């Protein structure tokens, strides 16, 4: 008898240990264990529950009891009088209740078990290697009795097996958590993200929105304040994203990149609403070690049902949308469009074109005259970048302007243009040719690298040209950045002139005219194009001219292409203009020739007038 018992127990033990070693999930192992134990102890109903670190009971297996029983005790807290299991877990010692109906430990719980015909319950705590109670193993009986010696032996074995299985289960859960979570933020990681996207894409009825996000000023913070502040910033962004709503799942994909999946977002409109909400979450400055840091993110978005046929394509398109947003709309949101792929390709090609031309010294300046409309006289010039091809053709800036969004290119181009501007200006001055200014176009990236003030000054000093001849052209988008705006104001204090370029294409805000000290406004070509055919357009141009005059700001109409436009502009009091009607951009020597011919014409006119006077 005893020998048979030992071999039964060791067979049970081997079976369970093998399952644990194979990584069979704990609930399955627990279920098998209960069934085997019940077979060896006729009349007993076996249950296994786990106890979490907060002391709550979670039934795991109980094959002979109805499911409703497990559901009824799920989440109950352990305690000194909480049935047999709750009390055993609480005390850390086995609890034998031979008559549930009368035992005080079961007071308040009898209604759960007596109707099932259960009369006695003996529960033993399952402990981890460190002695923490991690579960309970119980035998219920349909008669009022305690355990037999054989049952005690069986339960000893089962409790030991459970403790191994539970620990193994916790280990694998910990490993899984580590594998699927990011250590810095505690958010799900790229691995979890890839699985989630793949799973959701596999079930076509599961439509969802996906946002890719990236922190804009991460590198700056890391470089200037150190990596611990950078880490705190990543944690804060993760935290703000995760607390933005219950229906979203936030992932940290690595570095400063996050993803958000929203099952609720089924169209572009509500995905955009979510993106805008996330942008707003970043508005409040983040205080870290006494520093106030602005958290700025850029977002690209896709919808599973229309922007990708597979998980891979969907993710790629979300990346493209983010990449495009980083170039075209930093700090904002852009939804994926199918044309993006080609526009990104264009940018890459233009960057390479300009980079190569700069390397090979094929970049030079053309100059477009700025005209006093009334006297049809050149008063200044705007420098515009050109590339000479190997075949001798000339490429205009418009054809490689995307190449300027690369900061290295922009930096090098500005240096090249400055040198050309200063040397040409020197040559014109040496000939005694008169010009009020030569204008240089600057973009946001020019303000992000190096000391712009010194960079602008150096070539002018080297050629002995006073700085007041230099006019810098910036757009409203550039001025929108407070930091840039104050640097522009400083450049003006140094004696340079400042022109607001392309006015009307950006925010067209009149308050900019008040807030930023300016010398000139350049009305964008699109207004001049339409001012004769579109009454509203004409009215806006007129109003702008009048505002500028009252504020004593110079005003230039850009892209004048016809005599009718010039006439109308003169009628409404626009002093200055620029455009193909007068001159296309030309090289420095041609500018000299033009200026000379104006001087000659003026001399001739003066001679005519003086001889008329003499005759009179
Ligand atoms: P922008 O500053 O608005 O320059 C005016 C552009 O309009 C120039 O094109 C000029 O050739 C063109 N234009 C002038 N008058 C007319 C006209 O009557 N009709 C038409 N259709 N076009 C006219 P471009 O040279 O291709 O330059 C395009 C843009 O590239 C410039 O726009 C400017 O934003 C940028 N850019 C040019 N050179 C530089 C540079 O050296 N540095 C920087 N950062 N940007 C530059
Ligand atoms: Ca310009
Ligand atoms: Ca312009």
Give the termini distance in whole angstroms: 149 Å
By secondary-structure content and strand pairing, the structural class works out as alpha/beta
Number of domains: 3
Q: How many DSSP helices?
A: 21
Helix content range: 40-55%
CATH fold category name of the largest domain: TIM Barrel
Rg, nearest Å? 39 Å
Overall morphology: rod-shaped
- Bin the strand percentage: 15-25%
CATH superfamily of the largest domain: EAL domain
Tell me which CATH architecture of the largest domain applies here.
Alpha-Beta Barrel
Bound small molecules, deduplicated: ligand C2E, calcium ion
**Which segments are poorly predicted (pLDDT under 50) over 5 or more consecutive residues?**
none
User: How many strand segments?
Assistant: 21
Average per-residue pLDDT, rounded, comes to: 92
The neighbouring-strand order within the major sheet is: 13-14-16-17-18-19-20-21
Largest sheet: 8 strands, mixed, barrel
Q: Supply the CATH class of the largest domain.
A: Alpha Beta
């Amino acid at each position: 008898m005893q020998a048979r018992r030992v071999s039964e127990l060791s067979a049970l033990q081997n079976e369970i240990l093998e399952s644990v070693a194979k990584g069979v999930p704990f609930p399955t192992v627990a279920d098998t264990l209960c069934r085997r134990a019940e077979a060896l102890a006729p009349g007993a109903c076996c249950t296994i529950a786990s106890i979490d670190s907060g002391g709550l009971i979670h039934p795991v297996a109980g094959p002979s009891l109805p499911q409703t029983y497990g559901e009824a005790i799920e989440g109950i807290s352990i305690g000194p009088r909480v049935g047999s299991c709750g009390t055993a877990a609480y005390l850390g010692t086995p609890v034998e209740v031979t008559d549930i109906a009368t035992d005080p430990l079961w007071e308040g719980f009898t209604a759960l078990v007596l109707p099932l015909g259960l009369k006695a319950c003996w529960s033993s705590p399952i402990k981890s290697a460190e002695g923490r109670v991690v579960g309970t193993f119980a035998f219920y009986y349909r008669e009022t009795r305690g355990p037999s010696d054989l049952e005690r032996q069986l339960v000893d074995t089962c409790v030991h097996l459970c403790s191994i299985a539970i620990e193994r289960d916790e280990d694998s859960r910990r490993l899984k958590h580590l594998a699927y979570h990011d250590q810095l933020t505690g958010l799900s990681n790229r691995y979890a993200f890839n699985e989630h996207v793949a799973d959701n894409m596999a079930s076509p009825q599961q439509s969802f929105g996906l946002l890719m996000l990236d922190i804009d000023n991460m590198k700056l913070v890391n470089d200037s304040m150190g990596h611990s502040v950078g880490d705190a910033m990543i944690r804060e962004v993760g935290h703000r994203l995760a607390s933005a709503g219950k229906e979203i799942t936030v992932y940290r994909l690595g570095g400063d990149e996050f993803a958000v999946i929203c099952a609720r977002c089924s169209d572009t409109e509500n995905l955009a609403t979510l993106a805008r909400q996330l942008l707003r979450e970043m508005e409040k400055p983040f205080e870290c070690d006494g520093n106030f840091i602005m958290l700025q993110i850029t977002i690209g978005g896709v919808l599973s049902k229309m922007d990708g046929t597979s998980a891979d394509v969907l993710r790629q398109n979300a990346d493209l949308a983010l990449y495009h947003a980083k170039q075209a709309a930093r700090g904002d949101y852009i939804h994926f469009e199918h044309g993006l792929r080609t526009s990104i390709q264009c940018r890459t090609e233009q960057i390479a074109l300009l980079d190569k031309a700069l390397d090979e010294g094929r970049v030079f300046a053309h100059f477009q005259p700025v005209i006093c409309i009334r006297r049809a006289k050149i008063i200044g010039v705007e420098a515009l970048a050109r590339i000479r091809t190997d075949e001798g053709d000339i490429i205009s800036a418009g054809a490689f302007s995307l190449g300027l969004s690369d900061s290295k290119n922009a930096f090098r181009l500005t240096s090249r243009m400055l040198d050309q501007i200063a040397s040409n200006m020197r040559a014109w001055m040496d000939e005694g040719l008169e010009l009020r200014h030569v204008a240089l176009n600057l973009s946001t990236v020019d303000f992000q690298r190096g000391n712009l003030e010194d960079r602008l000054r150096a070539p002018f000093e080297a050629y002995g040209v006073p700085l007041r001849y230099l006019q810098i052209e910036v757009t409203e988008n550039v001025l929108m950045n407070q930091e840039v705006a104050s640097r522009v104001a400083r450049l003006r204090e140094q004696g340079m002139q400042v022109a607001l370029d392309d006015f009307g294409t950006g925010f067209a805000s009149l308050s900019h005219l008040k807030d930023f000290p300016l010398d000139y406004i350049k009305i964008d070509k699109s207004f001049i194009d339409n001012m004769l055919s579109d009454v509203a357009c004409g009215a806006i141009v007129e109003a702008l001219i009048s505002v500028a005059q009252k504020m004593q700001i110079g005003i230039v109409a850009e892209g004048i292409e016809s005599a009718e436009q010039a006439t109308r502009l003169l009628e409404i009091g626009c002093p200055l203009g620029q455009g193909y009607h007068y001159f296309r951009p030309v090289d420095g020597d041609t500018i000299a020739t033009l200026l000379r011919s104006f001087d000659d014409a003026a001399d001739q006119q003066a001679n005519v007038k003086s001889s008329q006077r003499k005759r009179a």
